[in-house]
Amino acid sequence: MSAASDVHWRPPLLVALAVLLFLEALLVAGAAVWLLVELLTVTPESFTTAVAILVLVVIAAIWVVATAIGALRAQNWTRASAVTIQILQVAVAVGSFQGLYARPDLGWALLVPALVGIVLAVSPQVVKATTRNTVQHE
Questions:
Q1: Would you give the end-to-end CA distance of the chain in angstroms?
Q2: What is the DSSP letter of 45?
Q3: Which DSSP state fits 2?
Q4: pTM of the entire structure?
């Protein structure tokens, strides 16, 4: 492989992590659109709370998109960001398995990709691709 083509080569597991993150971003953006439609068509019990949740979901969507783009660019910070996103997703999944309005189907749909995302983010191939050569950058 030449130096020019080496710049654009990404390990398959890094690409898989980016694809997973883009899919998750798409779902979070869809949730934001759904919340916006609900806010505009249904009177919420608390308008302030509804707006706050909408803002948080929009911020989450932006965060996941930024992390996915960073993963495609092999940025070293994306591993920590991706793991954090997946841990938060695991927390939501665990909450989906319990309580008065438990949704085990939703819990599994959140838990499985989150665990896959964590495994991808800490895989040796991804770590190597996103670790800077500090000797070269000094």
A1: 26
A2: S
A3: -
A4: 0.85
